[in-house]
TrEMBL record:
This is diguanylate cyclase. Keywords: Nucleotidyltransferase, Transferase. The keyword rRNA-binding does not apply. It comes from Alkalimonas mucilaginosa. GO terms for molecular function: diguanylate cyclase activity. Residues 372-506 form the GGDEF domain.
Amino acid sequence: MNVYLEQLAQSVTTASDLESLTRPLLALLQEMTGLDSTYLTKVDQTAGFQQILYAMNTAELTLPEGLKVPWEDTLCRRAILQERFVTQDVPAIWGDSDAARELGLQTYVSVPVYLSDGELFGTLCGASAVPTEVEAKHSKILQLFAQLIAWQLERERQLSLQSQRAQDAEHRLHGMSLLAELGDLCLLASSLTEVLQKASVLLQRLPDWPLVLPFRQRAAKAELLVTLKLTPDQHEAVYYLIRCYSKKAMEQGEVLWLCQEENEAVSAMRAMLGLKPTGAVACITAENHDELEGGILLLSQSDDLPDPSLILSCTNYLSLLATRLYDQSRLLQMNKELSVHALHDPLTGLANRRYLQESLQRTMAQKSRHGGQLLLAFIDLDKFKQINDEHGHQIGDAFLVALASRLQAVMREGDLVARYGGDEFIVMACLAAEDDANRASNSLSVKLQQATSGTFVLQGVSLQYAGPSIGMVLWQPGGADMESLIQQADQAMYQVKQQRKAASRD
């Protein structure tokens, strides 16, 4: 017995896994009992099968490893139900067993192997085709060996759980690090496209997703943001999958799916990309007020779905970014429009009175410092009320727009045309210090008269306009201030208007 104890001690202390523990125990059990075959089985009660994991065969009776038989008809199950661990005369006790009869079993021993939670793992068994006397102490040894195997299984399960927990913790840490980097990217980002590209590089570090495809959605069409060496058919497969899963993500609010073989279209597209027909799929979407702006499609070969929290967090980050960028763009556009409305006439698009005053004051200050002159022309549209009365305000507005366009067309770059009031316009023309002011004034007067006189065809109505009254003044550094200069131009225009009225009476 001391020899057996030494062998048992050697087996227990040197075993590193279930197999390295079980095989010496089977050999030792066979040596102690004289049975032809000893073996360890695993039972899958859900599937209804029992399978031999490890076996020791030394005589004519051979029970091969890997043998799988229905659980319902096994002697092991009968032994458990009847609490019969040792059966000396199998034909007399279980003569109705086809398996026992075919194998010619005479002696049979079996004890269940239970895990700590009461789950049946399998059985530790021995059998012989010749009658073999099994002593009571052997039954105790059989139970001891079963308990040792159960302890080893429990140890391996605990190690597996610890390993899984460590792996899960590592994945969580990796995920937290990834989210921190993504958060930093999104915080100050000014481009969703750039963030999607960089986020896809971060996600490629994850072992679960061998294929990571960032895309932008433009005019209801996806645009891939990575360069891949794909055939036209493979490109079409990519876009099909993006359309399919981004739509599901938007409509269902999910981030993870398992592609099944029943989905023939998706399976075919996966196969076209070199992936197996089934596998995990994730779709990160960047949504702006329920509108898809872009996203990242992830494809895996695994049939296991990972924790969705990381993918969901990425979706939230990118959607917040997409919404922020959209809102900022709209705010900038609105501010720009407000600025335009604040400084421009809404009908003609010309500078308004406020813009004119600010520009005139700024230009006068600049020319006071560096030298130069200004010509300011005040334009009043004579008989404009008559146009409105005869043709209506719609034609009157069209006339103002057309006249404003003509004025802008004849002015030089750096000059300014503004609508000062209802039918009043002001033109500011810049001159250099050495320019001939009289010649420039005459030239500008001619240009303005030609631009504002003649035929205007407005919405099918042809108008012959004799032109406005135009008053012009010259300003030089040290001259009048801005308000006084405008008053001077207004007075000059009034004098021209009076002269034209007097001429028309003669």
